[in-house]
Amino acid sequence: MNILIITRIDDGHAQALKWALSHYGAYADTLFESDFPQRGTITYSSDTNTVTVDGPELRASSWDVVWCRRSSEWVAHDSIHPEDRKVAKRCGSLMLHALRYALGDRAFWANGPESGPRAENKVRQLQIAKQVGLNIPHTLISTDPYKVRAFVGRFGTCIVKPLTTLNWKGPGYTTILPTTRIRLSDLQDDVAIQACPMIYQQEVKKNCEYRVMVMGREIVAVELDTQSVPQARLDWRWAKPSTMNARRVNLEDDVELKLLRFMDEADLVCGSFDLARTEAGEIVFFEVNQQGQFLWLETVVPSLPMLDIFARFLISGDKNFRDAGSKPVVTLEGFHDSGEWEKFKTEYPSLHVTPPNAHVRKVYEDVVEEVPAVAACLV
User: What are the start-end ranges of the H helices in the chain?
Assistant: First the structure.
């Protein structure tokens, strides 16, 4: 079986899965979109009516499964004029888009080149969640100062969060906007409200939270005791994972059914859900990340074989995949001990093009380095 992983050079998940799949006898190619056009070529010919691709670490010409893990960008040569690079990047992005459609006409996609990006839209997520019967917080997404102030005034204290990851980069630092508590007194500047649409929600009084990974029809839920850790109470991604008690749990049958209906409506075959249980015992939907980080769950619940389960999911090529509960062949600890990630970090500069602002870190540095989970879990 040939499996293609579309990713970027700072993605430890891709390298871990490539290693794991090899232990199951499946070969995985990795395609780094930032390698184009400097280290790879893409060609469409009307003679054959096909698109062909060549690049480092690509051995097969067709694939049974495509894991569309992470996107990157077309990195034009430094030698051309800066304005020409902008034009080349726009055209190159269109070619990469065409490539995705051509790579696996008959392949199993996790997730599809259209359905995956579409599912990242937070407005659509909330609409689908309500449609399938999941509870969501009272929510307003708007640039209307009057409506925003009226909404926040209605509930007193709310939270605000971005529609996508917002970060500001400077020399040696990156600032990321977390979920933030907000009050009416914070909303006096009309221009600030109008300039950037944000998600405003009634603050949910939580008992605990869940990171739920869905693969086919398999649901893996991990309960996080976020409320006992001050840094995690509002946004658990800003706490050290090791500070939160975590355990694998089974969600209520009706909740699991609604999650599967969500997957169907969103046309997804895998995704990471963020849920919470309120003080009243209700499950509330926050969001889903169609390519969210999941291997870190194996570090906080060592008995949970996330790497092994996801490898078997990809090999199955089945949107109805269910875990048979067989003995794991691979573990995250085994990958870490193998040295493959360190080897990749040593070899990649000679093989691949590093896109701007990419940082190849230690594998799962959220645990290894004891930094906030946002380092591995935010996107």
Answer: 12-23, 82-103, 115-119, 122-131, 145-155, 190-195, 253-266, 297-300, 306-316, 332-338, 340-351, 365-368, 374-377
